[in-house]
Amino acid sequence: MKKVLVLMMVLSINVAFTQNQLKQTIRGVVMDNETQVTLPGAVVIVNSSLPLNAVTDIDGKFKITGVPIGRYDIRISFLGYEPFMMKEIMVGSGKEVVLNIGMKESVSMLKGVEIKATSNKEEALNPMAFISARQLSVEEAKRYAGGFDDPARLAASFAGVASSVGSNAIVIRGNAPKGLLWTIEGVEVSTPSHFANVTSFGGGGISALSSNLLSNSDFYTSAFPAEYGNATSGVFDIKMKVGNNEKREHTFQAGVIGIDFASEGPFVKGKKASYIFNYRYSTFALIAPVLPEFAGAIKYQDLSFKLNFPLKNNVFSIWGIAASDYSGGDAKKDSTEWIHTWDNVSTSCVQGMGGTGINLKSNLSKKAFLVTSLSTSGTWLDSRDKKYDASLNFHDKDKIIYNSWRYALSSIMNYKFSAKHTNKSGMNIQNLNYNIKIQNNIDGSGLHTFANEQGTSYLIHGFSQSKYNLSNNLTANLGVHTQYFTLNNNYSIEPRAGLSMNIGGGNMLTAGYGLHSQIEMLLIYFTEQIVNGNKTYPNKDLDFSKSHHFVLGYNKRLSENLRVKIEPYYQALFNIPTAKNSSFSLINLDEEWFISDKLTNSGTGRNIGVDFTFERFLKDGYYYLFTASIFDSKYKGGDGITRNTRYNKNYVVNILYGKEWAFSRRNREDVISMNGKVCFMGGDMMTPYDKQASLDAMTVIYDDTKAFTEQKPAVCNIDFSLSYRRNKEKHSSVWSFQIMNLLGNKEVYGYCYNMKENKIEVDKDRIIVPNLSYRIEF
């Protein structure tokens, strides 16, 4: 009798505890990952001590209510498809968990053989990609130290990628940041960063995209599928989140670097249409004491949104992003305070980027869908510098006006012939509008014009690619991409191929090849030269810069949550614009606006290396990631001499670790998270200066005959974040502290002239970025 009473007490306590637990809803849709046709009758099971499961309805939707706060694995199974596992899904009290789950159709189902559900968290969302591709999850973007809500900085933790504290420009396998293609909702866009193209072409200061609006996305570092063009190094394929169409939810965050507000929900309750938007405003004024002098006046803001309207057989969506930035500083009027050459210079830079698109996805049948997009995106920059001379006369130093807009129409058809063969084909027509004026006061005699042009041109893309599932263990991908540039009637035909082989025991072999090409920044084509009194454009006929990518891969799944990956690669670049009898090459282009040379497509380059990844996915409250890249990057300029490229760092090593502690307190479920990152990498290459010529000219004169023969000091950066999440009834709150460059290491930019002491110094700055913030989700 006593044992029965004890058992009844234990059961009653457990029931009471369960009733008092905070709970949330998990819902979503299950679909074929290639046709995106919904799968009715799929079984969804939440791994829990409670019976939490559901079966998808006729529209492929499921809903599981009463899920206690915490992390869960979710198993999905459907007849004829490979079972799938979603790992460590965070369930909080502030927002519902809404999942879009894609399943892979099995090529052959063996009777009597049970296939274990797998979770490939690193696998790209794009079913056509299986080499040098990785999925970037929203949760990782929020979790990894040093990410600062920035997809580009997060990607710098992956193998083969490098970045810096002062810029989010990412160097992929030795390539310049300008070689990266950005897409949003399948549309090519300008670099979606604040202060883009100021610190580096292809990069900026911080992302203009908030993680509140991001969905899981794909990142490619080599041999990307045929649907992508106009890129030579990599692709960042950003997807936007669809707003919750059943419940209105909001997020507000305030911190020392600004505020952030997001909202999502149905336009009308009970209807399928939804909205989501995010607005941010930031200023670095509060952290100015730990930033370089010029950074304290930085201000920026951005707005992004997505509207989604499901129809009977179609989905109509409208998305947009806009960013506005200001930076600048005043010159010191007292010449006795002038130390460096920027002390007597006033700067003012107003810039921004934007993009918006209308997408229509039409489900033509159970095997085919068509996506048609009409979009516009672009960037604007108005930078004006003025300078005091020795007589305290204030005159123009340089002016940069660079406005570039792209209007695009694209249509892509996806057709699944069978479980073994899927084809994706499409075309994209881009109308390029530009207004460019580049001027510089070279010798103090007045502004000299390097480029001054307004007009329009077209860049036309076409592609077709097929994926062949030769068996459950062998997959091939073949495709071709074409480009045509109407400005100079140049075109490019680019074959692509990939192979993936599962050799058993958790071992996977991959191989890929791709020919990739890219046009240069439009200002390059409009470089002006005066010949016999007439204006000429010596670079207008430049061909595409091109690159062959060869890559092999070995992926070993050591356990359910542990994997190792090795990727050796070789990249051969050619058709690179260079200046005759000079070390100059656009392969090293960083932030050089004032280019006056006649260029020809005679340059070459090569990148060779190996990337290594050892990763433990989040499980039992902790994760770690170790990546290492060893590489060599060389080029030949117009003088035919083999040299290091600017970005030949030789090695990059990242170590990341994170730990979560979950505990119950006063009917709450709280979580403390700690994340750290250590990055070791070699310095960029730089050109030595000519000492005597520099002292005579009282400015740095570089010795271009010895281009990129010096290396900047090696770097060791440490990033850290700490957060405390409190889950309460109907809302969650998060206190967080993040710091980038905890050790306060200085970044070296090159050399500068010291006017006080008449000597050349190393130009370097210490950039430490701390952020204390409070966030509430309700």
Description:
With 778 residues, the protein is mainly beta. It folds into 2 domains: 1-119, Carboxypeptidase-like, regulatory domain (Immunoglobulin-like, Sandwich); 193-777, Maltoporin, Chain A (Beta Barrel), CATH 2.40.170. Helices cover 5% and strands 57% of the residues. The chain has a 22-stranded antiparallel beta barrel. Strands 8-15-16-11-12 form a 5-stranded mixed β-sheet. Strands 3-2-5-6 form a 4-stranded antiparallel β-sheet, with no helix packed on it. A hairpin with a 2-residue loop joins strand 34 (599-619) and strand 35. The longest helix has 19 residues, at 2-20. It is globular and about 80 Å long. The model is unreliable at 4-18 and 110-114 (pLDDT under 50).
In short:
With 778 residues, the protein is mainly beta. The protein is built from 5 helices and 45 strands.
Rg over CA atoms: 27 Å
Shape: globular
Query: How far do the termini sit from each other?
Result: 48 Å
Number of strands: 45
Shape-level CATH architecture of the largest domain: Beta Barrel
CATH class of the largest domain: Mainly Beta
Helices, by number, come to 5
Beta strand %: over 45%
**CATH homologous superfamily designation of the largest domain:** TonB-dependent receptor, beta-barrel domain
Question: What can be said about the biggest beta sheet?
Answer: 22 strands, antiparallel, barrel
Tell me the domain tally. 2
pLDDT average, as an integer?
A: 91
Task: Label the structural class.
Answer: mainly beta
The helical percent reads under 10%
Uncertain residue ranges: 4-18, 110-114
CATH topology of the largest domain: Maltoporin, Chain A
